[in-house]
Each structure stands twice: as structure tokens, then as C-alpha cells.
Design a protein that fits this description.
Helices cover about 45% and strands about 0% of the residues. The chain is mostly helical and about 120 residues long.
């Protein structure tokens, strides 16, 4: 009797996975692993900045799976980080200015499940 109750649940999960309704691995990553600063400390960051807040933004951006390259956690806001942030901003419909501010911090902590914009070469 118990097996009959579990069968529909298993079938439902398989169907959801096949239809893409299950969150991809990148969306399941936990920003708790990025603990270089408090999650409430969200200063404005721009190209050329350095420090723990930059390292936090780098770590959070690395939670994205798939094609985007992983950034070195060096605390330096360089050209690779600028390119990746502009792409992340575009995925969320934000202005692609590469400035990490309130809305960009929000999407770094809560990324979209998927992005359909190809990563720039």
C-alpha cells in the first residue's frame, strides 16, 4: 500500500525535472559560503575597487553555474569582474553599467534560475 502512494510522487518529480521545473544546480548554491563581509554590508563598488566587499561580490558571482567563468577571489575589481557583472545585470533586466549597488547586490544574493543571454566571448 505504501508503495502505491510513493509512485505518483516519484512520477511527479520525474515529470517536473523533465519539464525543467526543478531549479538548476546553480540556483541551489548557497550564498552562505561567501562570508567575506556581512550580507547586510552592500557598498557601491566600481571597476578598480579593492577589498573584502569586492571579494564578497566575486564569491557571489561565482555561484552562477554554466558558461560564465569563475572569478579569482582576489578582492580586486578588474576587467573580468566588470564583464561578468554586466552580464549578470543584463540577465536580470538591470542597466548593464558594471556598478555593484543596491539592485545588483540583491541579484547577487538571489540569482535568476537561468539566463538566456549568451556570455560574451
Amino acid at each position: 500500500m505504501r508503495q502505491r502512494r510513493l509512485l505518483p510522487l516519484g512520477a511527479g518529480l520525474c515529470t517536473a525535472a523533465a519539464l525543467g521545473l526543478v531549479a538548476p544546480h546553480s540556483a541551489l548554491a548557497s550564498p552562505d559560503r561567501c562570508s567575506y563581509t556581512s550580507s547586510t554590508y552592500r557598498p557601491t563598488l566600481t571597476h578598480g575597487d579593492t577589498g573584502a566587499a569586492v571579494k564578497q561580490a566575486q564569491c557571489l558571482s561565482n555561484m552562477w553555474g554554466g558558461q560564465p567563468p569563475k572569478l579569482a577571489l582576489d578582492g580586486a575589481f578588474g576587467s573580468a569582474m566588470l564583464r561578468k557583472l554586466k552580464w549578470i545585470q543584463g540577465c536580470h533586466g538591470l542597466p548593464q553599467n558594471g556598478v555593484v549597488e543596491g539592485r545588483t547586490w540583491q541579484v547577487l544574493y538571489h540569482p535568476a534560475l537561468d539566463c538566456y543571454d549568451p556570455y560574451p566571448a
